[in-house]
Amino acid sequence: MNKITKKVAFWKKMRFKYKLSFLNENTLEEVFTFRLSRLSGFIALALFVVFLITLTSVVIIKTPIRNYLPGYLDSEIRQEMIGNALKTDSLEQRLQIQSKYLNNVSAILRGDMKVDEIPKLDSLIDNSNIRLEKSEQTAEFMRNYEEEEKYNLNTLPAAANRPDSPTFFKPVKGMVSSSFSLREKHYGIDIAATPKSSVISTLKGTVIYTGFDANAGYVIQIQHLNGFVSIYKHNAVLLKKEGDDVAGGEAIALVGSTGNFSTGDHLHFELWLKGKPIDPSEYINFN
């Protein structure tokens, strides 16, 4: 008998159905019967085993029986211990604070401690409503500074006579290091200044642009009346954002060297009138 014949005979034997009957012992009457092959019996047994394993796993995972598994209880106990340790530490800190508070109250009632001598407990003090008042030195400095800058106008007499020329503020205190030049496409002037000194708005207006450029660093542009637009480049920090209204002489940025480190800390200042660049030195005295 060759292999093919043996294989056919094996599968024929596996699919051959047997009759299983249940008889009444007294009457020999056939009560229940069904036919079953070896193959179907093997499949039924495999399905039963899979069902039994699944049911056992669910019972172990979903019930307290899982605590008897090796290593499972250890992780739960570890988590519970960590949680209890954190709670204990918090309660100890709270107890220490309450103890210090009661000791202070007792000392005050006994007359052993004055109210001004009570040690301050940061955790018992609500700092949300504390307002820091200006010192007399700070207030005096602010008054002097405001009075000094109040009349710090640098409008040239020739520009003041023009009908379209308002009163300008000098954008920053410093020395002009590079002048305006249309031929060289240098549409503004560079003013060398001390690092982090205040850059002020040359006129009253509205901020129309703020951003960072790889060549110009932090830039801020302000739209003014009469068609003037002022541009401030190479700032270290911008103090205003787009849409903000600024007054003439109000600080809008801090001097830096961003975008052009080779020339040091300076401000590049441009003044445009009705879409065309103009020489700022014709309107502002930078000397």
Structure description:
It is built from 5 helices and 12 strands. It has helices at 3-15, 38-62, 72-110, 136-150, 157-160, and strands at 17-23, 30-37, 175-178, 188-192, 198-200, 205-213, 217-224, 228-238, 245-246, 251-255, 266-273, 276-278. Strands 3, 4, 5, 6, 7, 8, 9, 10, 11 and 12 form a 10-stranded antiparallel β-sheet that branches. The longest helix is centred in the N-terminal third of the chain and has 39 residues, at 72-110.
Distance between the termini: 119 Å
Order of helices and strands: HEEHHHHEEEEEEEEEE
Gyration radius from CA atoms, angstroms: 45 Å
Helix percent band: 25-40%
User: What is the CATH class of the domain at 152-282?
Assistant: Mainly Beta
Using DSSP, what is the number of strands?
Answer: 12
